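no rush on this but wanted to send it before i forget. theres a chain ive been looking at and ive put its sequence and its fold in token form underneath. please have a look and point out which stretches look like helix strand or loop to you. thanks a lot i owe you, the record is right below:
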Amino acid sequence: MKAKTFENLIRKVVREEIDYALRREIKSLKEDLRDEIKPRIIEHTKVPEPVKHSLKEKIMGTAPLKQRSKQNFSTNGTLNDLLNETARGDTRTEESSPASLARPFSTGAPLPADTAGMPTEVADAVTRDYSGLMKAIDKKKGK
């Protein structure tokens, strides 16, 4: 037998053995992963505490709602419920709301920004005056 043929035969046998061993290890690892991924049902008996300052409290407030009798605005039940909810004033649209239609959205003055805790580069970008940049953009567009 020639040396080259013998070398190729050994390479083939080694490849087959490595392939067989790898398949066996991969199969073992997949089984381990399947066992870890299986869902476990855990029953919680502790009642979660209500979240303080929830979004619903911010929008709806904590004051009790005014009770009004239901009126028939429409024959559609869903639309009628929605209109009754609006008539009762279930949402807070007074000044405590983040955006009020009673105040203008923009006065032209720069908005105050709380930059506490921000890196200086970010704080500089947030508080920078971009009016010159916007004017240059408008000038380039020909406005």
The mean pLDDT is 76. The two ends are 88 Å apart (CA to CA). Residues 3-37 form the longest helix (35 residues). The CA atoms of residues 12 and 88 lie 83 Å apart.
